[in-house]
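Researcher: I'd like a candidate sequence for this fold, 222 residues long. If you have to choose between options at a position, lean toward the conservative one.
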């Protein structure tokens, strides 16, 4: 894993603080991805994503990631990482690849499944083109999450559609290894940490309320 991380360390260093912020408005996203006449219609965007279209913009990636929360099976297909971690620890890379593919078939925006599929294919000695495309998707999604705010307050929190994505950003993207505390502030998760090279503040906020709000939307429709 250390070798694999080194491969991408330069990339992460270059992008961690270079991006502009992107306004994430869920009503606007819903309107765009549900317009069947638009190029932003979700099935069209998702096909490009699954075809590994290199021309997808940051905003289109944001529509795909955040727009997944408007799909019927969004909550049902919440990614489970338990099996992935066990397979990784046992160095069962064939099994890991198969499990990741199962998850991605249902949830193509799963951070861990994209990351670990790329990793397992790398460890299996597959061609670079095979594993790099999953690592690019993983990086692209994390980049738009990092662009969704600055993390300095609940109003400017980084927006994620799953709580598990918070921890991916905290530990893998911003490399904040000394988390001291977590609590809810409004609809945001609040963490106190020591600054890292990639995140200079001592506090970081994430807004993962989308799953709660989506759950309420589903209940109200019944």
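Model: Candidate sequence:
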């Amino acid at each position: 894993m250390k070798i694999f991380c080194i491969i991408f360390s330069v990339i992460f260093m270059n992008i961690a603080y270079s991006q502009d912020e992107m306004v994430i408005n869920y009503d606007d996203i819903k309107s765009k991805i549900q317009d069947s006449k638009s190029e932003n219609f979700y099935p069209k965007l998702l096909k490009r994503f699954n075809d590994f279209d290199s021309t997808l913009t940051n905003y289109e990636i944001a529509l795909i990631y955040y727009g997944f929360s408007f799909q019927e099976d969004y909550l049902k297909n919440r990614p489970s990482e338990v099996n992935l971690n066990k397979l990784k620890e046992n160095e069962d890379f064939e099994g890991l690849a198969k499990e990741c593919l199962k998850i991605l078939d249902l949830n193509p925006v799963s951070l861990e499944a994209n990351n670990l599929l790329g990793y397992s294919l790398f460890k299996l000695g597959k061609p670079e083109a095979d594993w790099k495309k999953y690592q690019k998707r993983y990086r692209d999604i994390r980049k738009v999450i990092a662009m969704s705010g600055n993390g300095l307050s609940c109003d400017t929190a980084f927006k994620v559609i799953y709580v598990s994505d918070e921890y991916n950003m905290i530990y893998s993207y911003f490399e904040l290894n000394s988390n001291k505390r977590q609590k809810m502030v409004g609809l945001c998760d609040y963490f106190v940490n020591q600054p890292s090279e990639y995140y200079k503040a001592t506090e970081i906020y994430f807004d993962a309320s989308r799953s709660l709000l989506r759950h309420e939307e589903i209940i109200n429709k019944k």
